[in-house]
Amino acid sequence: MGHMHLILNHFPVVGLFFSIALTGYAYYVNDIKVKRAALWAYTIVGITTIFAYLTGEPAEEMVEHKPGVLKQMIETHETAAMVAGIFIAVIAILSAFELWNQKKGKPLNPKLMMGIFILSIITSLPIARTAYLGGLIGHAEIRPFSQGSQHETPVIEGGEESGEEEGESGGMPEPANH
User: Is the predicted pLDDT of residue 156 greater than 60, yes or no?
Assistant: First the structure.
C-alpha cells in the first residue's frame, strides 16, 4: 500500500497544474465546454488527493526507519500535505457543486468559476511545497543538508561539518571551494 503513495502523489501536483492551464485556456477561448472540462479536472484532482493522502501513512511506515530519514522530515511533509489537501478539497467541492448546477440546467456561475481559478493558482504554492518536502524524504541527493542527526548540519566538500555557528553564516553551508 505504501508503494501506491509513490504512484498517486504525482496526480494532485500534475493534475492541479494541468487544471490551471486548462482553465486559463478556457478563459482564452471563452468556451463553456472547456470550462466544464476544467471543473471535471479539478474534481478528479480532489479525488486523487484523497487517495494520495490516505496512502501516506503506509508509505511512512516503509521509510521511517531507513538511514537518513528523520521523523521531522516526514511530519513536516505530512503537515504540508494536510494544508494543501484542504485547499484542493475546497476547489474540488466547489467544482463538483458547479458541475451539479450545470447538470440541473443552471448557467455557469462566472464568479464561482473565477474564484476556483484564483484559488487553484494560490493552491499551487502549498502543493508544490508538499511535493518538494516529500521529495526530500526519498531523495537524499536533493537535500541541502546531511541528515545524520536531529539537527540539520551544513555539509561542505568531503562531508566535513562546518565549524561556524548558524548565526555567523546565516544558516547556509560555506562554499566547498574556499
Answer: no
Predicted confidence (pLDDT) per residue in 40-92, tens digit: 999 999 999 998 888 877 777 777 777 777 778 888 888 999 999 999 999 99
**Which residue from 9, 140, 128 is spatially nearest to 70, judged by alpha carbons?**
140
Cell numbers found for residue 90: 475546497
| Residue type (1 letter), 107 | P
| Count of residues in the chain | 178
| Contact status, residue 126 vs residue 80, Cβ threshold 8 Å | yes
Give the amino acid at 24.
G
Across the chain, the runs of DSSP E, i.e. the strands, are: 145-146, 153-154
CA nearest neighbour of 158 among 143, 171, 173: 173
Widest pairwise Cα distance in the chain: 69
CB atoms under 10 Å from CB of 15, counted, come to 20
**pTM attached to this predicted model:** 0.73
**Whole-number Å distance between alpha carbons of 143 and 168:** 21
What structural domains and CATH numbers belong to the chain?
A: 2-143 (1.20.120), 152-178 (no CATH)
Burial of 110 by CB count in 10 Å (0-12 exposed, 13-18 middle, 19+ buried)? exposed
Q: Which residues contact 110 (CB under 8 A, 6 or more apart)?
A: none
pLDDT by residue (tens digit) across 96-108? 999 999 999 999 9
